[in-house]
Amino acid sequence: MKYNPNEIDAKWQKYWAENQTFAAKNNSEKPKHYVLDMFPYPSGAGLHVGHPLGYIASDVYSRFKRHQGFNVLHPMGYDSFGLPAEQYAIQTGQRPEDTTRVNIDGGVDKEGKQIAGYRKQLDKIGFSFDWGREVRTSNPDYYKHTQWIFIQLFNSWYCKKQGKAFDISELVVVFEESGNELVEAVCDDNVAIFTADEWNSYSEDRKEQILLQYRLTYLAETEVNWCPGLGTVLANDEIVNGVSERGGFPVIRKKMTQWSMRISAYAERLLDGLNDIDWSESIKESQRNWIGKSVGALVKFQVSSSKSQVDAESGKTLNVKPETNFIEVFTTRPDTIFGVTFMTLAPEHDLVAKITTPEQKAEVEAYIEKTSKRSERERMADVKTISGAFTGAYAEHPFTKEPIPVWIGDYVLAGYGTGAVMAVPCGDERDYAFANFFKGQNGMQEIKNIFANVDISEAAYGSKDNVEIANSDFLNGLNYKEGTKKAIEKLEEIGQGTGKTNYRLRDAVFSRQRYWGEPFPVYYVNGLPKMIDAQHLPIILPEVEKYLPTEDGLPPLGNAAVWAWDTKQNKVVNTDLVDNVSIFPLELNTMPGWAGSSWYWMRYMDAHNENEFASKEALKYWESVDLYIGGSEHATGHLLYSRFWNKFLKDKGLAPTEEPFKKLINQGMILGTTAYVYRLEGTNTFVSKNKIADQKVQPIRVDVNFVNSSDELNIEKFKAWREDFNTAEFIFDENGKYIVGREVEKMSKSYYNVVTPDDICAEYGADTLRLYEMFLGPLEQAKPWNTAGISGVFGFLKKLWRLYFDDNGLIVNNDEPTKDNLKSLHKTIKKVAEDIENFSFNSSVSQFMICVNELSSQNCHSRAILEPLAILVSPYAPHIAEELWSQLGHTTSISDVAFPIFEEKHLVETNKEYPVSFNGKMRFTIELPLDLTKEQIEEIVMKDERTQKQLDGRTPNKVIIVPGKIINLVG
What positions carry the motif 'KMSKS' region (predicted)? Predict the structure, then answer.
């Protein structure tokens, strides 16, 4: 009976689907375990062999936990809103919902392109997903709850004093009773103080405008990454080297009115929570750096501007009193305030236009235009390029009253701190480099040194240690801590500063000028946002003729014919019916890609609940994710936003835990092994790699499917691949073959090095793919794919099969297992259990191979050994394990059978193979029980005929015996 993986795979995948083998229960006497994968965006390109790595690992762990008696929730779904589907729709004229559905379910799109479909590809690999809980973020029955959560955020504010969110109605009561002077809330900067009487006298519109300054999601004019080519705002992690990750379009900084979320309110809790979760230190450190907590002072520098003296239209100078402005600076080193040599504003800072002098206007505007093309991430990362422009304005030092020149520079970011820096070149490398770069120019003063006994002629002194302040009036002689405290006290005395804790983390822009995303449940009355009542959700994405912005620059939803809210009928109606009396315009932006992914793990807990995103009972039972596996590229995007939403829902009494993911593992990337052919420059002749020598050649990537495991190119396939290769000529090696070059690179369609799991499953079976991916190396490391290694794993499975079957059928017997049989089995039980708990999946596969080799050499076919062996293999190779279990006479799935129990006694050595030496030279070995005394060992050894032969009638002078170690006869 031969091993036929294709038949076995199909049989058991059908069985699991029909019997809902992996359906989790929302209440069970078993302990719960929630294993989650970062759910994929379903692109038309489908899966390559790198994608399932994390899914296979989570599946091994899920199956193992079921064997241990847990009620395991292991769901899967699709993050199906997103820019790629919209871009594809624009290019091909197809509806994003249609292409997304085909990408998931498979089929042929309108261009006649055959799409494998994520679901079918995943099913072929044999995952133990609970498909009954599948979610798709682009389905209205899902995003209705995303809209509901948005409404909750809008109707909430954050109390600093209690450190949590509350309903906005509670804030209104405070305003009505006592105004806002004593309210400790996270809110906009520079909120005006008002009394209760003033609040109660305000119009409803004025009250709404004020409340927008406190709401956890709010409208504000913010600096955004605007991508004209895509017609949308991009998040920082969607930009690479100043262009969009999708399409490579230029990105500029631009001010727009956007929805934002006050994630900054949760900065301290997001930091504290990192101490309570089992994540890698590198991911935690990424989040700490992104949140960027720093303690220091907020300092106000007065600046008088002559900008208002120039008439904007005529350019004539007017006799107008100069306007007084203040530059606010956050600094972690207030002790160095007497070392301020210049000030730098972000090019986007609001004050730049107000304070720039007429003489400097052209230079400043040109610089602003230039820097608008660089992303914030690029500006933060570029520490080598020095650029800036002098505004012509001067600020006043709060203590010395000396004038300080004000510059702009793109190393300062508008969204970090106050968007302004008090530059102390003697104590900061970047300020030092800036000052030296512009040394001698108008507006750049000599560097002031305020450190005693420190030479700054070559470099700044950035350390806080061993600091003695000098040339600093009342701070002279103080160290860093003393100086900081004293400086803050004096700043507060004169009303020009205060102690402050600052965070790099900024509020998250929550608007996208695109079509394929969650619609906001928002309409506008007198320009102010109103929430649609939750009972009328979902607000469904409307049909549009085209997915581009309108001719006047509005987002794609501006093209919708039916996109207005009727407040009497409580439904979406034709746009041309807007009368701003009872029918109002709806929000034209959509939510960003991270909206649906910021809470999806909770929906899996109760995926079919129509009334709420999950019931309290389901949330209480599952609590949080026990194991989360996904890519490290989401460290400061998805993972941070998810933690923020979870904490907010916890405040609202919805999420049962503070943190959503207890343990996080980042799987490494499976890299492709690209194949290269080499074309002689200026010709259409290709030379084999081992014949290149000193010839000038152009390397060209070639489809890896044209190359065999010996790196030999299939010439016919290559020539038929592209028209310009039809007439190609070849210089072969000595064996008449064309050998390609190989290079390990990212697996990508553009590199022609993609291997699909479908092909591997079709040729070798899903279990071979699963085992091989786990065998490649440690889960968290990057490793290259090499299809040649597949055959070895396939050979192992065939060898495993032969323990149970020969050509005539089942050969398993009821023989009593030998000591060696039991030793091989229990070594494997111990090793596999430890490896899975430690996520060392590759060493488990090695142990399986060792075990099967040992049992084969022992000619073991004992049921007492082979039944537990099938269970051990089951998490990794579930199809063959199910078939073996069934053939052994069992009628239920192997998936819930208890994991074998390790018994130490089978690994305890009872015998020892002693080396027997004569005068220090080992002549033979003898196996003896370990519990023998020295005398008993000596007696046995002396009677052994091999000893007698070595002694040849002599009597040894001494017999040295160390029990359990050595036997040595001397003389």
Answer: 746-750
